[in-house]
Write a structure and sequence with these properties.
The protein has strands at residues 6-13, 16-17, 36-44, 53-54, 58-59, 66-67, 80-83, 86-87, 96-101, 107-108, 114-117, 125-134, 140-149. The protein is mainly beta. The strands form four sheets. Strands 1, 2, 3, 4 and 5 form a five-stranded antiparallel beta sheet that branches. A three-stranded antiparallel beta sheet has the order 7-11-10, with no helix packed on it.
């Protein structure tokens, strides 16, 4: 009959109704992997309502951790240290860090995320680096960047001692 149709939503998580969640979008903050989300929808034109229609079950998956730090550069002849830091949306504290690509001698502490490297003189140039963090459920984030190491300048040899001629 041309009436405008409005929709009413009722959300559930693990079969428990969610109060304050009545719109067409559902705020998933605070949900955990394995939670089951469903929505019931009823259409109404103001005079009549449809039968309730339930969605299928949406199973919440594991979200990948997020790397929240950025590396600094390295000065010629200086060691490189980077405190790789990450957070997990579900609060997983068992994060593991790894070096996927990097120059010879670079190391990553798998628990703390500390990256260390002392470039050798023959390692001047650009180095592609890939670091990863993984949560206990296997979700992973990767950070890729290039690290430039300038060639160290040779230290000038001390000059020969100059003769001192006393004034005449």
């Amino acid at each position: 009959d041309g009436d405008e149709v409005a929709y009413r939503y009722r959300w559930t998580v693990n079969d428990e109704p969610q109060t304050g969640q009545t719109g067409e979008r559902f705020d998933t903050q605070g949900l955990r992997p394995g939670d089951r989300v469903r929505v019931e929808v009823v259409a109404s034109d103001g005079d009549a309502e449809s039968d309730a229609a339930w969605s299928g079950v949406l199973l919440v998956g594991n979200a990948a951790p997020e790397i929240v730090s950025q590396p600094a550069g390295v000065a010629p002849g200086a060691p490189f240290h980077y405190a790789l830091r990450a957070r997990d949306p579900e609060g997983d504290r068992n994060l593991r860090f790894s070096l996927r690509k990097g120059p010879a001698g670079m190391t990553v502490n798998p628990v703390l995320g500390d990256v260390d490297w002392v470039p050798r003189a023959d390692q001047a140039g650009m180095h592609p680096i890939e670091l990863a963090v993984e949560d206990s459920a296997g979700a992973r984030a990767v950070q890729a960047f290039e690290l430039s190491v300038a060639a160290s300048q040779p230290t000038p040899a001390p000059g020969a001692p100059q003769a001192h001629v006393p004034p005449a």
